[in-house]
Design brief:
18 helices; three-stranded mixed sheet; disordered N terminus; three-stranded parallel sheet
């Protein structure tokens, strides 16, 4: 047995029994690494508990002082840049910066060519209701299709281009417009992994972008694999995904702030508030893989086949993520969460047919590629060759 397998397997037939948080429904195989305390409570739940002890009024005053340092003195520069998708969180970020703090932001959107109709309607509505300047960028569709295929082969993630795009193109705009302050939403690995405390005031870094958001890959890694998989890509095709140099970042003084360190972050509050104030719309149709209708409307595959890949890799999906957040917010019991996960996490959603047609793959080939990325901590082959795992509802 290889060293890699020895790390995860007790014996050659199956891995150790999967462990789940005793408060929420997070598995130990979480894509954002988590830890458990002696009572079986995960690090994300423990960090989420800190929100109730934070003095958010004091945090807002601290944030106001920070913003004041970046306001344009002559009105000839933007006060900040906000990367936006047109989702509820984007609305909330612009609401705070423009209408609460009176900043003059430049909005920047990376369009990955997968918007749902409601998501596109929300994005267009942003331009009307906030009155901000807005850059709307779409890479070449040929390049996007090639990157969908390539990144599926390389890391089992057809949406890597979107993770890279939203975490790179707005930074390029910050450098080009000499706008140092960037406003991001919540820190992802803090929100879903408990990586940092609310007392850390963690900011956006190249390292976090590279190691976590981009899975440890950069544009040149993707380009290096293109010929191997028959994709015609050149260096010039990768410009939107090239992070600015350290020299340019330092010259402008680019600084990325996560708003959840200064404003209490709660998607279940943001969504209804943005509907009431600005006409944000949730999906009129229910998703197959999650019960929430207000998330990820900018990409039809995020709640669908892209999330199915998360299930294939780590044994859980977006229904688990959303249920965990709702348990921590006091909106759902663990028993209710288990039922949502049982009902949804395994579904291969119907948007797969759009994606297969988009990139020219068959379902059989898609499944073959997916199986290469199954986490050996989670999956093993049953007696009939079927994939098996420990389920949340089978807990002792």
């Amino acid at each position: 047995m290889s060293d890699h397998k020895k790390k995860y397997f007790v014996h050659p037939e199956r891995p150790p029994k999967m462990r789940y948080c005793s408060r929420c429904v997070s598995p130990m195989s979480s894509a954002a690494p988590i830890t458990f305390d002696d009572n079986g409570v995960c690090s994300t739940c423990k960090v989420a508990n800190q929100r109730d002890s934070v003095d958010w009024d004091a945090r807002m005053k601290k944030f106001e002082r920070l913003c004041d340092r970046y306001r344009s003195k002559d009105g000839m520069h933007y006060d900040c840049i906000i990367p936006v998708s047109g989702g509820k969180d984007s609305y909330f970020q612009v609401h705070i910066m423009k209408n609460v703090l009176g900043m003059n932001p430049l909005l920047v959107t990376y369009h990955g060519n997968n918007y749902l109709p409601t998501g596109m309607e929300n994005l267009r509505n942003m331009r009307e209701v906030f009155g901000c300047d807005h850059i709307f960028f779409t890479p070449s569709i040929r390049v996007l299709k090639a990157m969908n295929r390539l990144c599926m082969h390389i890391m089992g993630d057809m949406n890597w281009h979107a993770h890279c795009g939203i975490n790179t193109y707005p930074i390029r705009v910050a450098v080009e417009t000499n706008t140092p302050l960037m406003i991001w939403g919540e820190h992802g690995f803090m929100d879903i992994g408990g990586m940092h405390s609310y007392n850390d005031f963690v900011e956006f870094t190249y390292r976090n972008r590279h190691e976590h958001d981009l899975r440890g890959y950069e544009w040149y890694d993707i380009l290096a694999e293109a010929e191997k998989y028959g994709e015609e890509l050149e260096t010039k095709d990768m410009i939107p995904f090239m992070h600015p140099s350290d020299e340019d970042m330092e010259r402008v003084g680019v600084r990325g702030i996560h708003l959840n360190n200064y404003v209490r972050w709660d998607a279940n509050t943001h969504g209804p508030l943005m509907e009431k104030l600005y006409g944000f719309k949730e999906s009129p149709e229910e998703f197959e893989r999650t019960y929430r209708r207000m998330s990820n409307l900018d990409d039809m595959h995020e709640n669908g086949i892209h999330d199915y890949l998360k299930y294939i890799k780590f044994g859980y999906g977006r229904a688990t993520d959303h249920a965990c957040k709702d348990i921590r917010a006091g909106l759902m019991t663990r028993e209710q969460a288990v039922e949502e996960v049982r009902k949804r996490d395994h579904i291969k959603s119907k948007d797969i047919w759009r994606w297969l047609d988009y990139v020219g793959w068959t379902e059989q080939y898609f499944d073959e590629v997916c199986d290469r990325f199954r986490d050996p901590r989670v999956w093993w082959k049953g007696p009939d060759g079927e994939w098996m795992k420990d389920n949340l509802w089978d807990e002792d």
